[in-house]
Amino acid sequence: MKVLKPLALAVIMFEIIVTHYEMFFTGDSSSSGLPNPNHIFWKLSIISQLAFYTREFFPLAYLITTIIYFVSTNSRLQNKAYSIFRYLFIIQFIFNLPTFLSHGLSGLKFETLKQRIEIIQIPVRFAVFFILLFNKPINQPKAINLQDYTTHIPASRWSRLLTHLLDMLFCFTVTKLWYLTLNNVYSVSLETALLLLSFTLLYFAYFFLSEALFSQTFGKLLTGSIVAGVSSKMGPGKAALRSLFRLIPFERYSFLIGKDWHDKLSGTTVVYINSLKEDFFPDESK
Fold first, then answer.
1. Rounded to an integer, what is the distance from CA 194 to the centroid of its chain?
2. How far is it, in rounded angstroms, from Cα 147 to Cα 267?
């Protein structure tokens, strides 16, 4: 089973290189999704162009973390790189699954290299998803109940602010909310209502999936913090409550004034992972 972890990383790295082959070696940027300099794209605003380039975030992140994993001799750095790769891939896979399947299964053709790659990607990505899902990083904390630990340090207000900013940037990237917000949202219309509904559902889904599967969001992963249950283990139910209470206007910023409403209402808190010290004699009845 140990060989599956590096194999999964290598397969995705190889896939990215092959997918971008035409851009790197033939100068054809169409296969990678990059725009032609003569295209109307270049007449769009900077924000529109940034929205377009968010798709390149994941390939770049996969390449960097994979290189660190295989090149580094520091086991802690290797584990961190794998943790980031695993989180990014699983979350992106779930959010892209509907589009991925509909695009890959519509009009199956093997005429060009690009079409063959798109078909092969389907079983390959499913295999990698399950390999990563069941191969957790070394010392990955399980669902945490703070009563099983003698010591913990709550995440600071400024750390949580940084986490929030990172999460919002990543949420816009992985859910493709950039594309939705390019529309005119200042007029009252059906399109505006659908936009707000889409934003709400995707925002909820991002935080729920992250905290239900990992007890961490992207921001928490980078800042070394994790969601923990106060009197019982962190789980999908608590993750759903946290995500639901975040939808209350301005609640997401309650930690700045020490209220932490989505923490208190869901019976959870955010602590630094490295500060946790286990109780040698935990109460097994919890």
1. 24
2. 12
